[in-house]
Amino acid sequence: MDRSWIRLEDTAEAISAMRIRGAARIGRSASEALAEYASSWEGEDPKELVSDLRRAGRRLHSTRPTAVSLRNAILLTLAGIDGCDSVDAIKEMVVKGSNGFLTSAEEAVGRIALLAKARIPFGSVVITHCNSNAALTAIEAAFTDGRVKGAICTESRPWRQGHVTSRRLAAGGIPTTMVVDSAIGLAVRMADVAVVGADTVTSDGTLYNKIGTSLLALAAKDAGVPFIVCAETFKFSNMADVTVEERSPSEVADPLRPEDLPGVRLYNPVFDYTDRSLIDCIVTEKGVISPDMAPSIIKDMFGDLSDEELNWL
Ligand code: RI2
Prior knowledge:
The chain is an alpha/beta fold. It contains 11 helices and 11 strands. It has helices at 3-16, 23-40, 46-61, 68-78, 87-117, 133-144, 161-171, 184-187, 213-223, 294-302, 307-311, and strands at residues 124-128, 148-154, 176-179, 193-196, 200-202, 207-210, 227-230, 236-237, 271-274, 281-284, 287-289. The strands form 2 sheets. A 7-stranded mixed β-sheet has the order 3-2-1-4-7-10-11, sandwiched between helices. Strands 8-5-6-9 form a 4-stranded mixed β-sheet, with helices on both faces. Helix 2 runs antiparallel to helix 3, helix 2 (23-40) runs parallel beside helix 4 and helix 3 runs antiparallel to helix 4. The longest helix has 31 residues, at 87-117. Bound molecules: 1,5-di-O-phosphono-alpha-D-ribofuranose (RI2). 1,5-di-O-phosphono-alpha-D-ribofuranose binds at residues 21-25, 130-134, 161, 197-199, 209-210, 270. 1,5-di-O-phosphono-alpha-D-ribofuranose (RI2) is lined by residues 21-25, 130-134, 161, 197-199, 209-210, 270.
């Protein structure tokens, strides 16, 4: 195995093992890994480089099947490489594609925070689930404006990303309370607004996000609490199907003590889906939309890509 592939493999493994996690972050890491792989590729045949880059894209994509951010980051970073007639031109195209993707991904979070905070009434308690940088940046911006007086975070089993979330919010001075996931029904009634991130938004406006999100959305609807999704446009998917990632049962129960649960199969889905009817709005960097406007976001994002560029992955 050559050295550039080993570095790409390191990134793929880190994403797979969730040492790199968060839908946007895994997309950014994949884009960076592709640019680095292209830059350090040694060879003279442009066709071979295109084929190796696609192999690299497929390897990265295999790590987290639900997060469309990963797929879109790969497609957008490698867009245009077929039209290049030299190895140098391909390398330049990939580095340019990656830089463009990284810059727009970073800017998107700031723009989303600006738009989302305006949807949070002054003096609100905000409830959030899991650990979304887009959602947390919006909550922090709203706190700075005096719109947020407190935050409630769910623990987010099995990985307990709620610990990371509550530490971040508390460190920023926000009075923060963490609850176990089964307290969602009660906790949402202590909140004024729910703000979450997105792993994937499909063309029919369905949200795929960390397991438990749909329960928060249902409880929010029942309690009359607005449910806001913060999603960069590269989280939108033009795919008909979404594969919900299932991870190892060892994340839920101790694999060394099978005797604790004799004859029990453990099911550990990572994401669930929330119907668009439960979503008040989706805040993207292009504006605040209702879920039924998802197709126009998808058209905007992929409008310049050929069928070949959209379908190779
Ligand atoms: P940002 C995370 O997935 C969570 O589900 C979170 O809501 C979503 O990504 C979006 O996060 P995971 O990688 O992109 O923890 O907004 O499975 O940071």
